[in-house]
Structure formats: structure tokens, C-alpha cells
Design a protein that fits this description.
Length: 113
């Protein structure tokens, strides 16, 4: 009998060790050996382009020129956006940008300042 745990995703008994983690060959799920499962709060946290957790009221910097749909304006690289508000959905940041107005941004195009 194997002392390895069953896969938490599909309950398969055919798991194996790979360095510092366990791997399931049936569903390709990987998890750490130390038993430290990510909590639901960690999974639902909104993160910037570098993996930093964002919170309401943070200041972020745009890391890529962003064209605004229906307009000829562009949000330039390096634009600082203060006092963001996090919302659910595809565009997960509500904010106001000086000279442009209210916008929704994707967290993958900003970094925490």
C-alpha cells in the first residue's frame, strides 16, 4: 500500500511525488507536500501583474499603453491611479483617471505602487 494521499481534486489513488509536491496523473492536479492548501481567500484575492494582492484604496501604476474603446484616447504607461476600488468580473478594478474619468481596468495591466 502506498502512503501517498489521494488527489484532492479527483480522489485518484495513483498520485506520485515530484520534488516538493504531489502530482495526480489522471487530472494533472498538483499540490504541496507540506499539506498547506491554499485557502479560498487566497484564491479569490485580486492580484496585480507581479502577483501582489490588491486592496481597496491602493495606488497602482499602469504597465502597458491601454486603448480606450470608443475613443481615441490612450492610458499611457506609468499613469498612477489612486484610490482604486475592487469589484468582481472580468475588469476587476474601478477607478478614476485624471484627464479621462471613470474607468474599469484589468488587474493584469497594473502594478501596486
Amino acid at each position: 500500500m502506498s502512503a501517498l494521499p489521494n488527489c484532492p481534486a479527483c480522489n485518484s489513488e495513483y498520485t506520485y511525488e515530484d520534488g516538493i509536491q504531489y502530482v495526480c496523473p489522471e487530472c494533472a492536479h498538483e499540490w504541496p507536500k507540506d499539506g498547506g492548501n491554499e485557502t479560498a481567500a487566497d484564491e479569490s484575492a485580486i492580484r496585480d501583474a507581479h502577483g501582489n494582492v490588491l486592496q481597496d484604496g491602493d495606488t497602482v501604476t499602469v504597465i502597458k499603453d491601454l486603448k480606450i474603446k470608443g475613443s481615441s484616447q490612450v492610458v499611457k504607461v506609468g499613469t498612477k491611479v489612486k484610490n482604486i476600488r475592487l469589484v468582481g468580473g472580468d475588469h476587476d478594478i474601478d477607478c478614476k483617471i485624471d484627464g479621462i474619468g471613470a474607468m474599469k481596468l484589468k488587474s493584469e495591466f497594473v502594478k501596486k505602487s
